[in-house]
Amino acid sequence: MKKNETTIQPAKMKDAVEIAKIITRETKKYGDILSKNETDILVNLFGYFTIKDRNKIIGICGLKIWPSRQAEIISLWVNKNYRKNGWGRELIKKCIEKGKEHGIKEFFALSTSPKFFEKIGFSCVNFSYFPAKVWTDCVKCAKNAGYPGHPKCNETPMLLIVK
Ligand SMILES: CC(C)(COP(=O)(O)OP(=O)(O)OC[C@H]1O[C@@H](n2cnc3c(N)ncnc32)[C@H](O)[C@@H]1OP(=O)(O)O)[C@@H](O)C(=O)NCCC(=O)NCCS
Description:
The chain has a single domain, classed as Gcn5-related N-acetyltransferase (GNAT) (Aminopeptidase), CATH 3.40.630.30. The protein has helices spanning 16-29, 38-43, 87-101, 114-120, 131-136; strands spanning 2-3, 6-10, 49-53, 56-65, 70-78, 106-111, 123-124, 156-161. With 163 residues, it is of the alpha+beta class. It has an 8-stranded mixed sheet, sandwiched between helices. Bound molecules: coenzyme A. Coenzyme A binds at residues 32-33, 76-78, 83-89, 109, 111-113, 115-116, 119.
């Protein structure tokens, strides 16, 4: 997709450092996204898309495949100045298209913006739909104090099943 100078494209190796920097900065400021370092980005690089405006990254979204054969939408972020223009929706669409090409039927997200995901077609479910995620990531998350759904946890589990 292209809107004037702004394009959405698969992430490249050279983007990994900047993606990690942006995600780390946003996590520190707002905590809406799970912190990622450069290695985390590189191991999932094939699932990542970026939006660039004249070579500057203004949007990020990734897809992480779990052994349950479900794919998680990760690192979703759109630069504040570009929000409410359809870029978030477009990033998710790209990730889902790519996942479908690889035979993935279930996509999930743990989100602080559940209304946004509902607009894209996701539904709110229980954490028990993603046991691998819960026992790998949630148990280590300070927000969850050891278990998802803890009063400190502000994430909503969202699921989309495609044909
Ligand atoms: C969530 C986020 C990615 C949305 O990006 P965006 O480019 O503004 O989203 P879009 O313009 O594609 O919005 C699609 C629809 O969702 C709505 N929407 C966007 N953000 C929303 C939000 N936070 N809450 C409710 N609805 C939202 C839009 O109004 C639009 O509705 P419409 O189709 O009726 O017009 C962006 O706000 C962001 O980066 N937030 C900070 C990081 C974050 O929260 N990431 C998600 C963690 S899982």
